[in-house]
Amino acid sequence: xxxxxxxxxxxxxxxxxxxxxxxxxxxxxxxxxxxxxxxxxxxxxxxxxxxxxxxxxxxxxxxxxxxxxxxxxxxxxxxxxxxxxxxxxxxxxxxxxxxxxxxxxxxxxxxxxxxxxxxxxxxxxxxxxxxxxxxxxxxxxxxxxxxxxxxxxxxxxxxxxxxxxxxxxxxxxxxxxxxxxxxxxxxxxxxxxxxxxxxxxxxxxxxxxxxxxxxxxxxxxxxxxxxxxxxxxxxxxxxxxxxxxxxxxxxxxxxxxxxxxxxxxxx
Length: 267
Hints:
Elements: H1 4-10, H2 14-22, E1 28-32, E2 38-42, H3 45-54, H4 63-73, H5 82-92, H6 98-103, H7 105-128, H8 139-156, H9 169-177, H10 181-193, H11 196-199, H12 205-230, H13 233-236, H14 242-249, H15 254-266
Antiparallel strand pairs: 1-2
């Protein structure tokens, strides 16, 4: 079984982090995965630069991986490869121009202030009811909610209210997705050994939850696109959020737009 169980028990990335610090290497570490399948971990900055920047089109993501996570991330900028990725990147570039990103600074600042205010209010409330003594704040979930709000406003021109409402439907959906549990881990492994259509039909509750989550996210994205289309054109002039730029390019079908929204929401 190679190093598979060792890596499963230690948690995501822990074994590779340990190897990177203790095993002599030149940026690459070979290890054995499930059924002794050979894998190469990229742990050096020069190798990472080659794979992610200089020669990124020479290193395509495994088809099983792309199919497995595309129902949550969409087949957008993150999972697209080759000429499709180049076309998508070219048509979305105006949304990432320096001037436009600079104009988003007030959103980043306002949402950061809102986040701090909500955390302070939460701690004050906990102190008042006697449960806050020696409390520890889990920043990861708070940061995820703030990020979702920033992406909503800067990427799609709408506020999700995730900071104010921890049970926001979209926030709750992504929280459930990214806590796979043991069943999710097993299904992830099976996805590399069996066709994805078969894995998705296995009678596990995790599969049902993933399908429900995917349907909910896609429905939300379609609704956002329809709302944008119904706005008078004069209201959209000058808007450079990701969704508006993608729509104005004329290069994306509605389902392509859904895939792009899913990609940035999951980010």
